[in-house]
Specification:
With 101 residues, this protein is of the alpha+beta class. The chain has 2 helices and 6 strands; from the N terminus they run E-E-E-E-E-E-H-H. It is flat, with a radius of gyration of 16 Å. The termini are far apart.
Length: 101
């Protein structure tokens, strides 16, 4: 059960030859990808998880929203590791990294 404490707040950052695992215990959100769009949903309020009904409503709103073409950034993760890590580094240094999705 000890592995569960890092289940949330963790992510992998692409690097060649291996990803780097980053853990941020202060994270309070999840990321939902729908129709090539990335949505950040805050799921912790005052230290407690939001109610399931609220989360469900947030996801329903994403699904029901009119389609808005987005840059399909998630598709980049399907590239070969060396290509994806190189692209990530370019994005990290540029304007795309500082955008709010």
């Amino acid at each position: 059960m000890s592995q569960y404490k890092k289940l949330f707040g963790g992510t992998r950052i692409p690097f060649d030859p291996l990803d780097r695992v980053v853990f941020k215990p202060e994270s309070r959100h999840i990321v939902v990808m729908h129709k090539d769009a990335i949505h950040k949903l805050d799921v912790i309020e005052r230290g407690d998880p939001i109610q399931k009904s609220i989360l469900y409503g947030m996801i329903e709103a994403i699904v029901a929203a009119p389609f808005c073409p987005a840059t399909p950034l998630g598709a980049l993760t399907t590239e070969r590791r060396e290509q994806w890590s190189a692209t990530y580094e370019i994005m990290r240094k540029g304007r795309l990294y500082n955008m709010r999705f």
